[in-house]
Amino acid sequence: MARKNVVKVHFLPNDVTVELESGRTVFEAAHKARIYICSVCGGEGTCGKCKVVLKKGQIDSKPTSLLGHDEIEKNYILACQARVLGNVQIFIPEETRLERSKILVGEESPEMGLLAHTKTDSRHFLIEPLVRKVFLELESPTMDDNVADHERLYNAINKKTNTASDRMQTGYRILKQLPTVLREGDWKVTVTLAYRGSTTEVVEIQQGDTSRNNFGVAIDVGTTTVVAHLVDLATCRTLDSEATYNSQIEFGEDYIQRIIYGEQNNAFGEIHNTIINDINNLISTLVKRNFINLHDITAVVCAGNTAMMHFLLELEPTRIRREPYIPSANFIPPIRASEIGIKINPRGLLYTLPSVGAYVGADITAGATAIRLDQADALSLFIDIGTNGEVVLGNKEWMVCCSASAGPSFEGSGVHNGMRAAKGAIEKINITRDFHVEYKTIGNVPPRGICGSGLLDCIASLLRSGVINKSGNFNTGLRTDRLRKTEDGYEFVLVNRVGAGIDDDIIITQADITHLIRSKAAIYAAISTLLDAMNMSVDTIEHVYLAGGFGNYLDVRSAITIGMLPDMPTSRVKFVGNTCVAGAKLSLLSKEAFLTAQQIASKMTYFDLMGNTKFMEKFMSANFLPHTNLDEFPSVYEELAAHSSL
Amino acid sequence: MARKNVVKVHFLPNDVTVELESGRTVFEAAHKARIYICSVCGGEGTCGKCKVVLKKGQIDSKPTSLLGHDEIEKNYILACQARVLGNVQIFIPEETRLERSKILVGEESPEMGLLAHTKTDSRHFLIEPLVRKVFLELESPTMDDNVADHERLYNAINKKTNTASDRMQTGYRILKQLPTVLREGDWKVTVTLAYRGSTTEVVEIQQGDTSRNNFGVAIDVGTTTVVAHLVDLATCRTLDSEATYNSQIEFGEDYIQRIIYGEQNNAFGEIHNTIINDINNLISTLVKRNFINLHDITAVVCAGNTAMMHFLLELEPTRIRREPYIPSANFIPPIRASEIGIKINPRGLLYTLPSVGAYVGADITAGATAIRLDQADALSLFIDIGTNGEVVLGNKEWMVCCSASAGPSFEGSGVHNGMRAAKGAIEKINITRDFHVEYKTIGNVPPRGICGSGLLDCIASLLRSGVINKSGNFNTGLRTDRLRKTEDGYEFVLVNRVGAGIDDDIIITQADITHLIRSKAAIYAAISTLLDAMNMSVDTIEHVYLAGGFGNYLDVRSAITIGMLPDMPTSRVKFVGNTCVAGAKLSLLSKEAFLTAQQIASKMTYFDLMGNTKFMEKFMSANFLPHTNLDEFPSVYEELAAHSSL
To answer: Do A180 and B316 touch (CB under 8 A)?
Structure first.
């Protein structure tokens, strides 16, 4: 047997060399070198994420439309499509290096504290995954016990799970294979039981005990980012997570634009396929990385705003944006994931959390579930900052909510160096009086951009240090070369390219600041409007839960300083992270949580802010730092005064 | 435009001539002549039922395997495949003339008396078809009433039908089309609601009021015959019925033979397809004859013995015939009819009534439902004589049942001139002391054979008139040329070919009589065994319900005379006809009836007669007319004594 040529691949900037057979791909070489390269398509050459630069040597590569002319001129290639024919040198650009998002993962996830096998606390949800695998050992039939196979199975399920026979359903295909599976499995079988409203469906029947192999995926289908968590449904452990920007961005930055695009171009099918593709890529990545069989993924729970849920299910979304703002459905029954093209077990189910209305979606019911607002004795405020800012005020007795177009700036979108909370993102920043910039990045690596929490800190710091004034404008008389004027206006250098993880300075521009102020103003105005509507004051709020994809960390004081949150003791405010995915995950693991989300959605009263003149007035007043009316922010007044006097 | 040639078709024996364009089929010509020809395939040339004889002229016909050599030599052709090219003369043989089976049809059907719109009598079932069409007029949404489309629909359904939202389910496709249908229908829509266990499914949504167009088919899937009733679900009227022999007969006369055939030849798929084909042919015939759109058939309810239900659903049946006799399922959940190839509305449902066990099937639970055994105060005996003879004893408190292999002779099968209860069948017969034969046929036409009720009468008459003795043997010394000896033994001529509607004498043979005696003995022995097991005597039975496809009429006294039924006042015995199709039809029209069948199936206790030595003894003793022990038949003893003395 002829030995294949061995070639060497030298990776930069890592300076690692590996040997492998000629004809293998650069992607495989990187894997061998333990260098992880972005890829969501799993090496199929369709996602275009694994761009690398061929520095020396020769490769064999198919033509691709995923590389631009510029890139091709610069010797960019797709690592997964490039076969190494001789010794080569490959440079992996920063953007291609795989960095795991810093999303809360694992048993320590806060939402996991809400789950229990027995009910010890009213805040606990009973663990009972929406799709369960139950191992059964049936008695084999005799003349004295000659119950039919199907009823024998139901009796065994009933004995083990306490599900009444008339509440179970079995599909025709399962029924057909039942006698064979029972006997070939020697009456030891595992049934996959799925919650389907008032019935439980036997989704699959397998020989032997496969109850350990049951996995689900909880997905936050955000307008800007899509986050997926892989959960072991047998142990309740979160195994892994992955995030990506929502590829629907090509149809518009916000969902209203996407609805308009879809309507004008008859493109709802395309918009739908785009998100399904993103989800399939995320699931595929998670499955491969964790060596899980796709067939063992039996459930997906999705949450997101109402428009996203409509795009996901290809439901008619056009009336969401037109008076009287009618969704096709708020409560969507479980369907087979395969029906909309999600690739998991072909009989696995897709659950979607319910929406409240056109502008308060499943992400909010997920969030309210994750913070257990339905069990709150004290008046609580829940704020979820994504592409929109939704605010819920209430307790276990009542809940009111509203939605403000905050824009995606706190998700890192539309901000010059904004990025989502991933490795290399500045998550914490402080600017001293002498314009020295201290910061911390996720993963403690050179900074590549700023995520939401960093941006909050940044605005607060710029204000405290006097770089910007209360209107958010740069103090142009400043004696520092960090502040500079460009064609597009002023900008402030946070990190010089020398210290940055990218080939450029990391800056914040006047436009960024204006964007961020508008975002925070919308949120503050929404909070004030709800309080006014209920005739309540800020003091009566005992708990504030702040959610969003800010990252792992958020400085509550910064949020108050810039006037996004009302002035209150920071101890009352809790940053709760991505509650959308947390609520989806709780539902995946607990039927009770799923039902709680339904109850919350039914219970919540929606206040419309569109055309609400009070809201508009409040929004205008909030377009300052912290606010035009400093009486509303006494502690910030003091804070800023103290800084000025230093 | 060239006018096509006009040709003449002269039909015999009707002596009717029609003109039509050359190139049309004989079948079309017959239709034009208002002569109805058998056809179950609807003119596709696949059923072979429309055989006619070409007497004169020329036709163009494709070769077919459905005609035998003999037939081709005799100029038989398939009417639907024969294109008329010139003037022709066509003879329509007796067997090809379409005659509607004399099945109870229409509002006067006895089971209809059990239905009511309001509950006035515990015996009444509330009318609520398993699949309903409900017309809804929804309020169009406004800013003050901005409920989502899906919830708006559910609210309207709830208001009209009192179905809770959490008990409803909607398929993904319906959900997708919902917003469009609602608006294009100007908020006036008709929903098709199907009972699916603990939930109600929205199966279809149509613009406007289509609630009048809702039809169902109730089917008795018998081992020997298949009977279908077409029911208007909006008015509860039975519109029409049709019957056919079960084509599975080619795989074996009884279901045990068919199971063995299927097992040995891996032919369960084929056996399944055969019954599906029969059912589709029946439905197609009913639909065409009544000008109904197939899409408006939304439900099919089937009942039959356990093996037939397994064949129907292609469920593994082999264990039915092997110890410990385990069906795949007794209670089969509703499935889409299209899943097993039944052609109705593609989202229409197939319901099957539940079985008790391997040998007491859905036909019996259907029957017990149709006679309302579940409400009986008095001790009742239900006997269903089909290919098997099943016996149920009980009242509203308890029910016991058993099954005896009676054979299909009372269905006209395996008897020389036996036929099912259709036009031309002798349903009533009397043989005088001087061997004069008086009879009555269904439809009052010349006799073509004898159906079950005629056979009962025939045996009783032969006994009374002394043509046969108590052992069932012909009295060979008889002075009549009606009794004659052939190669195969003795036979008695009931109708001479001159008076018959077929080209032969109508006779009863020694073998026929032996067959019929064995059948009646099995039934009597089954009744005795159940009574013994419960330690009860014949006197305690207040009602006897005798069911089966005997026809429209049955002489109870004849049944007692031959010893099929115990000796008792005939007033206690009621002939109830085909209770299998009646129970299926009640279920189609009343969810309550369907649920009652479930309860009956759960409640009934099965006694196994196989290997039961008491039963065998009783069977042997019953192989006489009326019985070896004449003490059990005092009134018959008297009757026969009186006849002898005449």
So the answer is: yes
Distance CA A368, CA A356 (A): 12
| pLDDT value of position A103 | 38
pLDDT of residue A38: 66
Residue A40 has pLDDT above 90, yes or no: no
Q: pLDDT, tens digit, for every residue of A151-174?
A: 999 999 999 999 999 999 999 999
CB contact under 8 A, B325 and A148: no
Contact assignment for A146 to B331 by CB distance below 8 Å: no
The pTM of this model reads 0.82
| CA-atom Rg of chain A in angstroms | 27
- Residue in chain A closest to B336 (alpha carbons) equals A172
pLDDT digits (tens, 9 = 90+) for B324-333: 999 999 999 9
Nearest to A333 among B169, B336, B339 (CB): B169
Q: Which one of 3.10.20.30, 2.60.40.1080, 3.40.50.2300, 3.30.10.20 gives the CATH number of domain B6-96?
A: 3.10.20.30
Separation CA A44–CA A257 (nearest Å): 31
Looking at residue B294, its pLDDT comes to: 96
Domain A366-408+517-645 of CATH type 3.30.420? yes
What is the pLDDT confidence band of residue A254, given thresholds at 50, 70 and 90? confident
Residue in chain A lying closest to B324 (CA):
A143
Which CATH number applies to A130-207: 2.30.30.90, 3.40.630.30, 3.10.20.880, 2.170.270.10? 3.10.20.880
Beta bridge partners of B439: B429
3-state secondary structure A173-235: HHHHHHHHHHHHCCCEEEEEEEEECCEEEEEEEEECCCCCCCEEEEEEECCCEEEEEEEECCC
The fold of the B217-363 domain, in CATH, is Nucleotidyltransferase; domain 5 (3.30.420)
Intervals of chain B under pLDDT 50: 1-2, 100-108
Cα A521–chain centre separation: 24
The structural domains of chain B, with segments of one domain joined by +, span 6-96, 130-207, 217-363, 372-408+517-645, 412-507
Which residues 167-206 of B are in CB contact (within 8 Å) with A? 167, 169-172, 175-176, 178-180, 196-199
* CATH number of the domain located at residue range(s) B372-408+517-645 in this protein: 3.30.420
* Dihedral of the alpha carbons of B503, B505, B506, B511, in degrees to the nearest 10: -120
Looking at the partner chain, which of B197, B330, B335 has a beta carbon nearest the beta carbon of A172? Answer: B335
